[in-house]
Specification:
Heme Oxygenase, Chain A; mainly alpha
Amino acid sequence: MIGPRGSAKFWRARSEAYARFVEISAFKEALLSVMERKVHWAWPAFSQGLVPKALLHVHLEQEYATYVRDFPVMLGRAYVRCPIPEVRRELAENLYEEETGGLSGGRPHPELFLEYPRGLGMDLTRFAEVTLLPASTRFRALLDDATEDRGWEVSTAVTTLFLEGTSYERGELDENAPKRPLPPLTEHPLVKHYGLPLEHLALTKAHRRVEGSHRAAAWRVILNYVEPHAYAPVLQAMEQALAAWLDYRDEVAAACGIGRDEQGAPVRVS
């Protein structure tokens, strides 16, 4: 009870609720600011077919070994560290899908990812022992640190918000904000520019089936269950993840023969 309307107790409770609302709103905006900067200058080169096909394997190998292969493990770390049953249930559903594909494609998501290189005729033995680039190694080290040693709040934010999220996260929360583009599968860059058969877009199809609910769950958990004392550590980890991801993508772009022209646009350099 907060007391009769007009009483000191009532207005104190109203003031505390308003302060809490403002605090959460600022936290949400700071998280959205991070995600809206999760945009890399070289991505048009990958989406427009500028990367030489002979070097495309570098991009896929680094993505796989840096976080795709072990994403269920990282998500599991958040699960086992969380003391809140409601949050664990959300994480458990996500983990179940990532580890088994039971809600969508019927196979673990890391296995579905390997359909990309398989469909492109790449040597899959390369994916068994990938040598990480230096920036990939640093990014992976940060992900391991964030998911192992900084509490469930940081672990959950870095996995379910940063790694799974996109620069269109505001559209997941605001019906008036731009949404994630969902072009026809025939327009997927690997199909359009590199000849990937549609049947090998298994991971893309699985993501489209479940990603909407995963985005909603991620934001619900972070905004409803992370306490104010954890806001600063979460935001610090998200900023660190963004910086490491940008460095990682810089190095992958260079290894794939992509540089920038005088205007900063991506161009093929080898």
